[in-house]
Amino acid sequence: MRTSRSKRHSTSTLSYNALIPHVSVD
């Protein structure tokens, strides 16, 4: 469960960054 959650979080972060890369740079 923990591993699954961690992996899911990683994907969410990657998607978020891809959608708004300017935020990551800021």
Task: Describe this structure in a few short sentences.
This protein is mainly α and 26 residues long. It has one domain (1-26). 88% of the residues lie in helices and 0% in strands.
List the helices and strands and how they pair.
Blueprint: H1 2-19, H2 21-25
Provide key terms for this protein.
2 helices, mainly alpha, rod-shaped, 88% helix, 26 residues
Overall spatial form: rod-shaped
**Strand fraction:** under 5%
According to DSSP, the number of beta strands is 0
Rg result: 11 Å
> Order of helices and strands, N to C?
HH
What is the quaternary state of this protein?
Answer: single chain
Structural class: mainly alpha
- Please give the share of residues in helix: over 70%
Major beta sheet summary: none
Number of separate structural domains: 1
The pLDDT mean sits at 65
What is the CA-CA span between the terminal residues? 33 Å
Can you count the helices? 2
Low-confidence stretches: none
